[in-house]
Amino acid sequence: MPTWIVTGGAGFIGSEFVRQSVLRGDVRVVTLDKLTYAGNRETLAQVWEHSQHRFVQGDIADAALVARLLEEERPQAVVHLAAETHVDRSIDGPAPFVATNVVGTVRLLEEVCRYWQRLPPGQREAFRFLHVSTDEVFGTLGPEGRFTESSPYAPRSPYAASKAAADHFARAWFHTYGLPVIVTHSSNNYGPYQYPEKLIPLMTLNALEGKPLPVYGDGRQVRDWLHVADHCEALRCILERADPGSTYLIGAGEERANIDVVRAICREVDAARPDLPHAPCESLITLVADRPGHDRRYALDTSRLRHDVGWRPRHSFAAGLAATVRWYLEHLGWVERVCAGVYGRERLGLLSQPAET
């Protein structure tokens, strides 16, 4: 049975990938996670004591730990999902994004490459390093067109810049050292276990409690929404079928303006909790100052993925959003535990105002 090491496997996307892989039953998974505010052991409860899963708490920037883990586990693949991901937090403090997304990725690449170079020829050829990135590295689109695998990079936030740097290093290890790297870029993910700083859980919880629903700018920023389960199924297909050095875009073609997503969330909360005193929840929507450097639109051309790998998303956005909203309404205890003393759903990423003179 092959072993895969998954970095960031206690986070939102990582835990879905770990759960899917372990419960499918044909691989052994080792989760390496630092357990920052967004990483949570509860996301792995289904597989925590599973015979085909091991959890290791640690930092991808800890070269000695990574080297030791590689020698102990002898993996056939490393799936790199560990990252700082929230754009607003990157505006408040870019340094942790550089430390994890850039420096951590480089140190991980160094140790994985050393391990890979010592493998016997057959195992070297079969090994894969799957580097999971974002569509935000490409910058912003106008009302027409889609990003492709050859789109130029134009990151506009510290988060996007840190992921762009990591992507370049990953590809450099392929071209310079021959490490069999595959890079993916996904659109906006949603689903269960997403930390409540992100749009869909934040708006769901605020709507439930009658708090304002702050929408940046005019709310017409467009994103392509991808269910996390579909994303992870695509990652597995790519890992098993794609050639080293390849790049794939992963999206569902479900473009929505942010304001329309928030209105849809309101309708779902109204339907699930018709007794709320502040209903309809749409009355709570408030337009606020836009995020600095806010990209206007993302959209992905996924034709290469569909042609080469044969993947198709299974979740429509309407059904996936309804199920996601219900999940958060039914798991308020989890929300309270992961946010306690760490995050009060306040606005992040506000630039300090210059002092008056």
What does this structure look like?
- This protein is of the alpha/beta class and 357 residues long.
- The C terminus is likely disordered.
- The chain has twelve helices and twelve strands.
- It has a domain of 241 residues: 3-Layer(aba) Sandwich (Rossmann fold), CATH 3.40.50.720.
- It is globular, with a radius of gyration of 20 Å.
- A seven-stranded parallel beta sheet has the order 3-2-1-4-5-6-10, with helices on both faces.
- Helices cover 41% and strands 16% of the residues.
Strand order in the sheet with the most strands: 3-2-1-4-5-6-10
Tell me how many strands there are. 12
Label the CATH architecture of the domain at 3-194 and 226-253 and 294-314: 3-Layer(aba) Sandwich
Mean pLDDT: 96
Number of contiguous helices: 12
- Strand residue content: 15-25%
Poorly predicted segments = 353-357
Task: Break the fold down into its secondary structure elements and pairings.
Layout: E1 3-7, H1 12-24, E2 28-33, E3 53-57, H2 63-73, E4 77-80, H3 87-92, H4 95-117, H5 121-126, E5 128-134, H6 158-177, E6 181-186, E7 188-190, H7 199-209, E8 213-216, E9 222-227, H8 228-241, E10 247-250, E11 255-257, H9 258-272, E12 285-288, H10 303-308, H11 317-330, H12 332-339
Parallel strand pairs: 1-2, 1-4, 2-3, 4-5, 5-6, 6-10, 7-9, 8-12
Antiparallel strand pairs: 9-11
Helix pairs in contact: 1-8, 2-4, 4-6, 7-9, 7-11, 9-11
